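Now for my pick.
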Amino acid sequence: MKKHIFKLFALAVISLSFFSSCNTDAEKPMYDVTKTEYAFASTLQSVEMLPTDGNKIIVPIYRNTTAGTSSVNIEMSANVEGVFTLANATATFEDGKAATDIVINYDDINALAAGTTYKLTLSFAEENASPSNVNSITVSAQRKLTFKTIGTGVFTSEFWGEAWEQTLEKAEEANVYRFPDVY
């Protein structure tokens, strides 16, 4: 008896699924491909600045086509004390390319404070944004410190309730010290 009830229930469910239909009204283009639209890959980018990077921060920007050349105006806000500048306020895409780089310049890496994170926001007009609507990106830039071993110290852990000898390192660029790999 239970088998017959289960079979009837399964048959009823399958029969009801035939009465559902596909909606043909939803068949249309997802977005307008005749208009060039732009987007950043993400809303956040973290950068560690090095002395070898040529005093530049590179931020990629993308477009929805590779046909022809195009450009979009870029604005930078939250410029910390005039330290950072845009190399060009326009991102220009070459024919056949779907991506280009926005370059942010800074004068001297040694003028940047050690341990400080600089936050910059790049954006372009919302009407030029792709359906992802990622028309701004916050760049968090920090100088990467290079550490050198200066000796051995004693690390006391309140968590473990013990103390042990540990290598001590100092940043070459500033008076910043660390015990590497303590836990």
